[in-house]
Amino acid sequence: MKRLITLLLMLLLISVSAGAMPDDFIAAWDFESFTDGKVTDISANGFHGVINKPSVMTVRPGASINGSSALEAAATSEMDNKMTAPGLGALISTKKALTISGWFKYEGTFDKERYFFNVPNTVGNAGFAASVLTDRKVKLQIRNAEDKLQALTTATAPVVAGEWFHYTFVVQLPETASGRGTLIIYINGEEVAKDTNINTAGLTTLSSLGHSNVNDDFRLGAQGSYTFIGSSDDVKVFGRAVTAQEAKNLSRLNDPTVLEEFKIGEVDMLGLENIDVSSPKEQGATYFSNKFPLRGVQIRFSENSKQRISTLTVNGVEVPKENYGDLQINMNDVVVFEYQGDEWEGNDIYYYKVTVKGEGIIFSDIGFYDGQERLTSIKPGSITAKATVSSSYEEESEVILIAIKRDAKSKLIKGIYMDAAQVKAAQNAQPSVQINVSGEESCVLELYFVDSAFKAFSQVLTLAGE
Question: Domains along the chain?
């Protein structure tokens, strides 16, 4: 199969309780789209990242924890090795709360404080910022209305060089000037530090933030020479404080889109050779059956898959999703299912193609009928038990129909009905019998088929009445 989930990804996947991934970010960069030195902001707000020094910071495909692209910053003595997002700081300065989250892998030495990000204050100092300290602890800080630093530091030293961690940093300002603010640090979805007694000196919005130079009012990876060394991915900025559950959800790795089940009738097609093709024009797989129609198509993806495209066609005609379960797949039908995964997985479309063929003694439209109506329960009157039978064998075979009527309670046989028909390649036969059921009877009807050489049996069909 084309889609393999690596062992590394499975080991690193953080187990969290169910919940929706928050998507109301005001800016976000997944580093999958990078052109002319700019990193696409996947929000609708257009805060595209600008890499200040492409010689020492770049977007590298395959560098992320899940195999996608990531932002890499090399060890350097150069100042301001950073990605900016012009104008984002100005928007942040209007908010009462802020969350910045992302995956980070630190790969430097612990020689000095190094910044994950910085939203500078109006004079360019570190305003709302998070950093790695020399003792491997993590610090979150904000400058208040008096330009005094208010900081929160983790009690333990969670940063391990060369390993990916997910960080979520939150600031919540008070509703009134006399109130106290809150700083929170989450690592891998777990709260590791919190202070609800931050002196904001009257701040009720983040108005102390926002550099006068809007081209430098948000910085990912640097504050002067205190540059972050390593990789960043899936960085999101929210104009609010996320909840603890949302912090857990943000720390989930992107789950790859995996097609886990593609059934026609009751048979899963995914094990067939050549089922996945690069184009629907290719031959694909062949599935042989001796009973038609095959009823229903079932499609199931892995949990948390986010497919953008999901289309089923039969003989080139698209089938609405609500009709999948009622489909009747007949001999020589061509079934194609295609899907496209989440945006971070790229734009590849994956195709699965099956041509359904008859083999051996082939039974179609097996059932009990009242005229042309195929019955799902017994009706009083004359009921026809029948099927259309064909063969892929050159030699002639005799097909025998056996219908049995039983008492519904005692299961004793009340009648046996038989018919026979000759069948060979390119010829159809339709054996049938008539069964009379009175309005007073409580019975069960059973239907069997077998050929004279015992080459093929149909599935037993049972019809119950009151």
Answer: 7-250 (2.60.120.200), 259-358 (no CATH), 375-464 (2.60.40)
